[in-house]
Specification:
The chain has helices at about 5-15, 25-30, 35-50, 70-80, 90-100, 105-115, 120-130, 150-165, 175-190, 200-215, 230-245, 255-265, 275-295, 305-325, 335-340, 340-360, 365-380, 400-415, 425-430, 460-475, 500-510, 520-530, 580-585, 590-595, 600-610, 615; strands at about 25, 55-60, 65, 140, 145-150, 390-395, 415-425, 440, 455, 485-495, 535, 540, 555-565, 570-575. The protein is α/β, with parallel strands linked by helices and about 625 residues long. The model is unreliable at about 1-5 and about 270-275 (pLDDT under 50). It comes from Faecalibaculum rodentium.
């Protein structure tokens, strides 16, 4: 009996072992997503396997039960058995690995290998076809049944994606010793060229070479396009020659060219020989762009060194590609736009700024890659829902008392207040919103002080704590999200034909009804000119960037027909009016709002029914800003 059969029996044993009483055949079939006929066949095989543990399976009137003297003996029997996929997701990954590694098969043979029905295999294959679409790959018929069809480069991209994600672990046919030898040689070659890759980059290079060598052995090679960056050709050529020598095969020119581009994409520093002046230029452009995004969204991207370093390295490769006219595919662009609309919108804004400074246009595929970096930063810097208010302390009773007061404030209000330092009365008059949101002072402050301030005692009594607590409750914006929606700002059948007309109409409604001032009204179009606010899913979320918002609100329009926004059609527009000050304190607002708009079912129902409360009801009453 082969390992796959034993693995299938292990699954059935786990199911039986977890059941305290005899199990019905139909229940087992449902749990394992197979037919009752398959379960009966499996039980016969399992009975044969259990003989080695002096155990057996007994079937009686549609149920079956285990006769197991020693569960430890059976567990030991199955201890090392793995490999048969249990769920549909696991089966789809197994099928992907099978076809990506040049496998061909009939539906019947796949059913036999996976111990499932042919109808289940067909369902799994349909899921696989959908997952292959972003890579422009499909399953085609051949004399042996089914095989993978599509461009060779896309097959490799798909293979790399599935392998890196950990979904599959293909065997490319190279032993550990030769792989380690090539890894060491790659490090030597990089060091000789003055290039520096981290361990992740080294492993990616090794994976790229393994996939290339495996495809070459099966007669599937890439042709050269004469677009390789010349300064990387020598390094790439040395690597392919080394790999060819270790694995006894020849890498064609197209493979060396492809590796050169891969080296550029994996670069951390030095591989493209970017001089210090160009590096500083990229870093400066990034900081300026991200600072603009932070000012608009209340984020902290420009303060994230991981993002700055990662994007600088990434852009150094992107610029080379774009200057050579190479636009690469982004197989996960659809998923990025649907799952990370907030990061995608910021990336579109950043791309607009970078285009002006760097002199090249970023296609949507590259903007998607920027969004991945930005999304990671949002996760790193956005764990807390609300940012702390900044507090300045004025204490005139001496250093010792000041230190004690600072310690008391941090101990009691550390989660709500970020103490920025101690200041004199004269210095307090010059503090602005950039310095602090609140001043805590042990003395009465003069009229020249423009910031809000509270007078407390040097020893921080219970009464002082109560005063601060009461102030924080009053100043923290805790209105329910539902309060942003108003009947007068809902337009279920807006018949306009262009983005500019829609922006003008909705912003005018916000202005006329008194929610915003004239400057804020004009800033919606200005914000849109910096980068599209469409977020996918037929939704656009324009928002203001200047002026006064007298009260936060959202104007909602459902268009009679979709309108081409910039990259795609839009039929639902949510125009958000919130102040810059609000965003600075509530930097998670857009992220939480966009998550609700990412639901295809919600947007589809809104378009079909035009019901005024659908979007409002998508937020719980307890969901506050």
């Amino acid at each position: 009996m082969n390992n796959q059969t034993e693995n299938r029996m292990a699954r059935l044993w786990k199911l039986l072992d977890s059941s305290p009483k005899p199990m019905r055949l139909d229940a087992a079939a449902l749990a394992l997503d197979v037919s009752e006929k398959t379960i009966r066949r499996d039980l016969i095989r399992l009975n044969e396997l259990l003989q080695d543990a002096d155990s057996s399976v007994k079937i009686h009137k549609g149920t079956f039960v285990m006769d197991v003297p020693s569960r430890d003996a059976v567990n030991a029997l199955f201890e090392s058995q793995t490999g048969i996929p249990d769920t549909q997701a696991q089966r789809v990954d197994w099928l992907a690995a099978w076809f990506l590694m040049n496998g061909t098969a009939t539906v019947q043979s796949l059913a036999d290998r996976l111990y499932i029905s042919e109808s289940t295999v067909k369902n799994d294959l349909n899921v696989l076809k959908n997952e292959l679409k972003p890579f422009h790959l499909t399953l085609t018929r051949c004399s042996e049944g089914l095989q993978l069809g599509g461009p060779e480069e896309q097959i490799r991209n798909c293979l790399i994606y599935w392998t890196r994600s950990g979904k599959i672990r293909p065997d490319f046919g190279f032993d550990e010793a030769s792989s380690q030898l090539l890894s060491d040689r790659i490090r030597d070659l990089l060091e000789a060229e003055g290039a520096c890759l981290d361990e992740y980059g080294i492993q990616n290079l090794l994976l790229h070479l393994k996939i290339a060598a495996s495809r070459i052995r099966s007669g599937r090679v890439l042709t050269d396009t004469d677009t390789v960056p010349q300064d990387l050709w020598q390094l790439a050529s040395a690597m392919t020659q080394t790999a060819g020598s270790i694995w006894s095969l020849e890498f064609p020119l197209g493979e060396t060219e492809n590796l050169a581009w891969h080296i550029a994409a994996q670069k951390q520093s030095g591989a493209l020989h970017i001089d210090e002046e160009e590096y500083r230029m990229l870093l400066s452009a990034l900081k300026t762009t991200l600072q603009d995004a932070d000012a608009l969204y209340g984020t902290q991207l420009a303060a994230d060194p991981v993002l700055l370093n990662g994007l600088t390295a990434h852009l150094s490769v992107v610029l080379v590609r774009l200057h050579h006219g190479m636009v690469i595919d982004n197989p996960i662009l659809k998923e990025i736009r649907s799952q990370y609309p907030y990061a995608m919108e910021i990336a579109q804004l950043a791309a607009t700024g970078l285009q002006e400074m760097l002199g090249c246009r970023f296609p949507l595929t590259e903007i998607g890659f920027l969004a991945v970096h930005i999304g990671g930063s949002l996760v790193r810097t956005g764990n807390s829902r609300k940012s702390r208010q900044k507090a300045a302390v004025v204490c005139t009773t001496g250093m010792g008392t000041s230190l004690l007061l600072l310690a008391r404030i941090s101990e009691r209000f550390g989660q709500d207040l970020d103490v920025t330092g101690t200041f004199t009365i004269r210095q307090a008059a010059g503090l602005t919103r950039e310095d602090a949101d609140l001043i805590l002072s042990t003395v009465r402050l003069p009229r020249e002080v423009t910031l809000p301030w509270l007078q407390i005692t040097p020893l921080m009594t219970d009464r002082d704590m109560a005063v601060i607590t009461d102030y924080l409750k009053k100043t923290q914006f805790a209105a329910p999200v539902q309060s942003l929606f108003h009947p007068s700002l809902y337009f279920p059948d807006l018949n306009l034909d262009s983005r500019s007309e829609i922006l003008a109409f909705l912003s005018e409604q916000l202005y006329r009804q008194g929610w915003i001032d004239k400057t804020a009204r004009e800033s919606f179009a200005k914000r849109e000119s910096l980068g599209t606010t469409e977020i996918g899913n037929m939704v656009a979320v324009p928002h203001c960037m200047e002026g006064t918002v007298r009260q936060p609100a959202v104007a909602v329009a459902i268009l009679t027909e979709p309108v081409l926004w910039e990259f795609g059609p839009v039929q639902v527009v949510c125009m958000i009016a919130v102040s810059h000050e609000f965003l600075r304190k509530e930097n998670g607002f857009f992220l939480r709002f966009y998550r609700r708009l990412a639901s295809p079912a919600l947007i589809r129902t809104m378009i079909q029914t035009r019901h005024p409360d659908l979007l409002k009801d998508a937020f719980d009453k307890e969901d506050t800003l």
